[in-house]
Amino acid sequence: MKTILPFLAALLFLSCAPSSETKKALDKDPNYNPEAQLERLGIELPEVTAPVANYVKAVQTGNLLFLSGSGPKKPDGEYIVGKVGKDLTIEEGYEAARITGINHIATLKSELGDLSKVKRIVKVLGMVNSTPDFTDQPKVINGFSDLMVEVFGDKGKHARSAVGMASLPTGIAVEIELIVEIETP
């Protein structure tokens, strides 16, 4: 009897343990709706344009989606350019990072079709075109990070690097790369 009890306990545990499908359903937050949150924030996603060189906007491997570096392209098609600490204030850099975030969300929507497939914003690399003596790059990239949390809630909290650069392509104020965990079938 003593040897059968652990076996029966294990069998009972396995029969009561939720399946992977049940776990997925339990993990889903019925209130998680990034697209409705965008609407509440009054954010319209821009049309995603083709890459300007020999690369792609996103690459998926497993359940991770890697987004190429993107910059602060405004709805009128112009980019925010200049060095933070010389041409732009921290607040203007913050806004440039936020606009870059909107552009990344548009790319996510284009790739996934449904933003609720975003399981987690995993990692952000924020590069700031700044003067050598400027040291507030994190305050600039907060424009991106704050937007991710506004739109995706706790799923928008991420690991991050915010670094200064001597220059960025075409003089843009910021460039940001993104790694996202996505729901897979």
Topology of this protein?
Layout: H1 4-16, H2 20-27, H3 34-41, E1 58-61, E2 64-70, H4 90-112, E3 118-129, H5 137-152, E4 159-165, E5 174-182
Parallel strand pairs: 3-4
Antiparallel strand pairs: 1-2, 2-5, 3-5
Helix pairs in contact: 4-5
- List the secondary-structure elements in sequence, H or E: HHHEEHEHEE
In CATH, the homologous superfamily goes by the name RutC-like
Number of domains: 1
The structure class reads alpha+beta
What is the CATH third-level topology name? 60s Ribosomal Protein L30, Chain: A
- N- and C-termini, Cα separation: 43 Å
Q: What is the makeup of the main sheet?
A: 5 strands, mixed
Brief sketch in words of this structure:
This protein has helices spanning 4-16, 20-27, 34-41, 90-112, 137-152, and strands spanning 58-61, 64-70, 118-129, 159-165, 174-182. The protein has 185 residues and is of the alpha+beta class.
Features:
185 residues, 60s Ribosomal Protein L30, Chain: A, 21% strand, single chain, globular
Question: Can you describe this structure?
Answer:
There is one protein chain. Mean pLDDT is 89; it is low at 17-26. The termini are far apart. The chain has one domain (29-182): 60s Ribosomal Protein L30, Chain: A. The chain is built from 5 helices and 5 strands, in the order H-H-H-E-E-H-E-H-E-E. Helix 5 (137-152) links the parallel strand 3 and strand 4. By secondary structure, the chain is of the alpha+beta class. The longest helix is centred in the middle third of the chain and has 23 residues, at 90-112. The protein has a 5-stranded mixed beta sheet, covered by helices on one side.
